[in-house]
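Morning!

As promised:
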Amino acid sequence: DTAVSQTPKYLVTQMGNDKSIKCEQNLGHDTMYWYKQDSKKFLKIMFSYNNKELIINETVPNRFSPKSPDKAHLNLHINSLELGDSAVYFCASSQVGGNQPQHFGDGTRLSIL
Amino acid sequence: GENVEQHPSTLSVQEGDSAVIKCTYSDSASNYFPWYKQELGKRPQLIIDIRSNVGEKKDQRIAVTLNKTAKHFSLHITETQPEDSAVYFCVGNQFYFGTGTSLTVIP
């Protein structure tokens, strides 16, 4: 069983479209995260939720909206996609707080045409 | 909270040699320091971590040292093998990843 699963694995779409990425974890963790990894391999935190509550919201454009229907799911919706949004998006989870090991999903490679 | 500096950005070593990667953080309240390994096209995976109540931790060929006064911590890999080739990330200031070190072990 995959501990942290993201769908889709690949997403190719046109500029201006709206898309969503889903993430689910079966580890019983309370905290979930979204990271963006750009072409230079920098891993930058975007959001973190603890038990459905937003606890970190980095300087991310408001075109990005996370949604956590329950503590096992954290989805990412992106409106009006731009070329600069092309990246690999990783979901992760951990036990509560920022001082625990994170378990990552396999990533979603988003390509904007 | 973003300032986590990681050096070097690239590192090439001969198989069997040691590799050392260093990170510096800024948040004095930080008390957990993990290292992640990311192979090409794969997800980051935790390889070792240390908490601020200890200065060193070792797991077979991998060790991490922490200097809280100087706010830096280092990853040490001994007897490197080709399968150690990957990008390594430190994490400091709770959620902030270092800029990554691309390690190549030359057979």
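DSSP finds no helices and eleven strands in chain B.

Hope this helps with the figure draft.
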